[in-house]
Amino acid sequence: MAEKAKETKAVAPWRPLADLSRWESETDRMFNDFFGSRMRPWWPTRWSGGDDEITTPALDVYEEKDEIVVKAELPGLEKSDIQVNISDSHMSLKGEKKKEEKVEGENYYRRERSYGAFLRSVELPTGVQADKVKASFKNGILEIRLPKTEEAKAKEIKVKID
User: What angle do CA 100, 55, 110 make, to 5 degrees?
Assistant: First the structure.
């Protein structure tokens, strides 16, 4: 009697809330498209705030050999609008996108650009030399390079595998 070959499938963890943000954005967009923003006072605005409020910037945080690198998307801001602070094991990114003067007498069909202040705080994965941090801002991308402390560099331990 020949044994049946078992069918194997990849196992992926179930993350019920992983798509919540995308679902919320899509639902908000559909209600806006169908009812218009004035026709839905009972529907809550986005979790980040009202239609004009800026959302927190998207970040990439990664580690290189001797430093932690943080990259933030900040389109429409000037470097004078951005403030970076390091304290203990946290880095905070603060800024404000100022609203352009209001255009009177124009009929808007869609208004999606956001304005306002934001504050984003990130826990750093290792100790850094706060006095040697360097930041650059080009084409709406803020790049922050945080050199690791000597203790943090030395923490890498090679484990012998038996």
Answer: 55
Handedness of CA 70, 99, 118, 40 (dihedral sign): negative
Under-50 pLDDT residues of the chain: 40-51
For residue 109, the 8-state DSSP code is S
- State the distance between the two ends of the chain, measured CA to CA, in whole angstroms: 41
Among 5, 43, 47, which Cα is nearest to 22's? 47
75's CB contacts (< 8 A; 6+ apart) are: 140
Q: Which two tokens stand for residue 72?
A: 């933030």
Q: What is the pLDDT of residues 9-44, one digit of tens each?
A: 555 565 666 666 667 767 777 766 666 655 544 444
E-strand stretches of the chain: 59-63, 67-73, 82-87, 90-97, 116-123, 134-138, 141-147
| Alpha-carbon distances, residue 115 vs 53, 70, 71, 97 (angstroms) | 5, 23, 20, 5
Dist. CA 152–CA 57, nearest whole Å: 27
What's the CATH architecture for 52-100+114-155?
Answer: Sandwich (2.60)
Of the candidates 70, 93, 92, the one whose C-alpha atom is nearest the C-alpha of residue 82 is 93
- DSSP annotation of 30 reads H
